[in-house]
């Protein structure tokens, strides 16, 4: 399956709002803390994930 979040092909993951999210991205999203330097980048990517989905509605 194609992960919409990291733009790669993975075998395991979940479907979220009609889009595939790989296991690695799921773990990253559920474990990242605000003190992590990558946090703003991850939040921005996740926001874009939802904005793209809203445009399809």
Give an account of the 3D structure.
This protein is an alpha+beta fold. 47% of the residues lie in helices and 21% in strands. It has two helices and four strands. The protein has helices at 23-31, 39-56, and strands spanning 2-3, 8-9, 13-16, 19-22. A two-stranded antiparallel ribbon has the order 1-2. A two-stranded antiparallel sheet has the order 3-4. It is globular. The two termini are 22 Å apart.
Distinctive features:
alpha+beta, 21% strand, 57 residues
Topology:
Elements: E1 2-3, E2 8-9, E3 13-16, E4 19-22, H1 23-31, H2 39-56
Antiparallel strand pairs: 1-2, 3-4
Tally of contiguous helical segments = 2
Mean pLDDT: 85
Radius of gyration: 11 Å
Helix content: 40-55%
Kindly report how far apart the N and C termini lie. 22 Å
**Secondary structural class:** alpha+beta
What spatial order of strands do you see in the largest sheet?
1-2
Biggest pleated sheet: 2 strands, antiparallel
Tell me, briefly, the overall form: globular
**Annotation, overall tally of beta strands:** 4
How much of the sequence lies in strands comes to 15-25%
- Regions with little confidence, pLDDT below 50 for 5+ residues: none
In short:
The protein is α+β, with helices and mostly antiparallel strands and 57 residues long. Helices cover 47% and strands 21% of the residues.
